[in-house]
């Protein structure tokens, strides 16, 4: 299995336990967007080394949102190497675990009879899904390119969590959608652009509203938080999601 997939020049998708992370490269320097589960730290480190870089070469780490399946290596690398972490002003308190907007084990009990749910729960439990994680993140200003390798532009897509953010890479026509729009999930029977099952969303109404912010972007390559990358204009992907949701 490939450790990293080059989505666009210097834009790489890596995979943890049923979840993606993204590396942006600029010369020797890297930006890491999301970091899998706590148990995915080795997967993230392997991806970095496959690019001929070291964790210390990561200049900054970005969180689309502060769920445990996206914070793993972010927390580990912050603690080990002091690499700064940035997220939406609203998401900062979530990353610090001043509050928690995340489904817990009991939320999945009604779904246990469904195909694939139990194996998935066991898989993510092994990856550290029940571990409590927090990180002292700093706030960025949404809408402005960040002074980090790859020059990602945070796009406020609040809904899945109160401060969820996507990242636009205008020079490559790529959008990293996080969990605002995904292309597959072990708990979903369908492939292609879709929302996560509602159990994962903090605010379902807002999650639909956030799609407007994605649809307005100039991007034809989508790198989601879960599922494969997709070559499709983001506005068309949003149309597919809206059709499926009605
Ligand atoms: Zn997720």
TrEMBL record:
Limits of the Metallo-beta-lactamase domain: 18-226
Pfam families in the cross-refs: Lactamase_B
Gene3D superfamilies: Ribonuclease Z/Hydroxyacylglutathione hydrolase-like (3.60.15.10)
Domain of life, source organism: Bacteria
Protein name as annotated: MBL fold metallo-hydrolase
UniProt source species: Rhodococcus kronopolitis
């Amino acid at each position: 299995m490939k450790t990293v997939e080059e989505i666009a020049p210097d834009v790489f998708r890596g995979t943890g336990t049923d979840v993606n992370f993204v590396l942006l490269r600029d010369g020797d320097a890297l930006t890491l967007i999301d970091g899998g589960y706590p148990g995915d730290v080795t997967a993230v480190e392997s991806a970095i080394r496959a690019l001929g870089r070291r964790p210390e070469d990561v200049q900054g780490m970005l969180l689309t949102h502060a769920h445990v399946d996206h914070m793993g290596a972010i927390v580990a690398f912050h603690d080990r190497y002091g690499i700064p972490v940035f997220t939406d002003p609203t998401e900062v308190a979530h990353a610090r675990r001043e509050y928690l907007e995340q489904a817990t084990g009991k939320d999945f009990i009604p779904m246990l009879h469904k195909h694939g749910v139990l194996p998935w729960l066991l898989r993510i439990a092994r990856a550290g899904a029940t571990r409590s994680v927090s990180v002292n993140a700093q706030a960025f200003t949404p809408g402005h390119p960040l002074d980090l390798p790859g020059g990602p532009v945070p796009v406020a897509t609040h809904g899945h969590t109160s401060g969820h953010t996507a990242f636009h890479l205008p020079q490559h026509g790529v959008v990293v959608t996080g969990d605002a729009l995904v292309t597959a999930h072990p708990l979903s029977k369908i492939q292609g652009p879709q929302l996560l099952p509602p159990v994962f969303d903090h605010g379902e109404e807002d999650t639909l509203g956030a799609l407007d912010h994605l649809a307005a972007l100039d991007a034809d390559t989508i790198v989601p938080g879960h599922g494969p990358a997709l070559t499709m204009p983001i506005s068309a992907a949003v149309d597919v999601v809206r059709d499926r949701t009605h």
